[in-house]
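User: structure tokens for this one?
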Amino acid sequence: MKPPVSAFYLLLLIFTLGFLLAFIQIGILTIAFDKLGLSPHSALLLLVTSLFGSLINLPLFTIKAEPPPPGLSPSPWQGLLRQPLREFRGKTIIAVNVGGCIIPVAFTLYLLQYHDLPALKLILAIIIVSAVCYHFSRPIPGLGIGMPIFIAPLAAAFTALILSPEHSAPLAYISGTLGVLIGADILRLKNIRAMGVPVASFGGAGTFDGIFLTGIIAALLA
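Assistant:
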């Protein structure tokens, strides 16, 4: 039986954590998350739990799917963190990723509770970022949904600055996180049957990178 996470990805995870810790020490990530009302320790906790949570997919249900094209061999560098692919057996498990969905959505609810964001601007920002993410996301056979990782953070930051400069940081994080989940995951459900992937996870695979970086870049730019 193969281990759930290869040594390569474990080393990559450790390196990424060390890199993020160094950024916090010099204050870059601290500035970003300070705009969201987090202390350095809370910011580090959020980042670490998101990274480790990205390795966990909670199954919801299973659907029948078509096999991937023959000879397909996805690159291991197509994303920030990538788990080894399972063998495709004609079915796709629809799951939810802990680090790319549950934790960001929970933090989004926290921000909604502690920031008085105008409802109309909030809905409009989510719609705009969702539309951008849907437009730029693409189904990748044998892998899942892929999207350039800087699209969501930049779209969320600029949208928040235009709609609500006084609440730009929390609005950027919320619209960026929910925009990726809605535009690149939920609205792409119709494409899953033709991708030939063993697991399709909300907030996982190609969209985790966008969600993870949204919290850092969007808040920093906003």
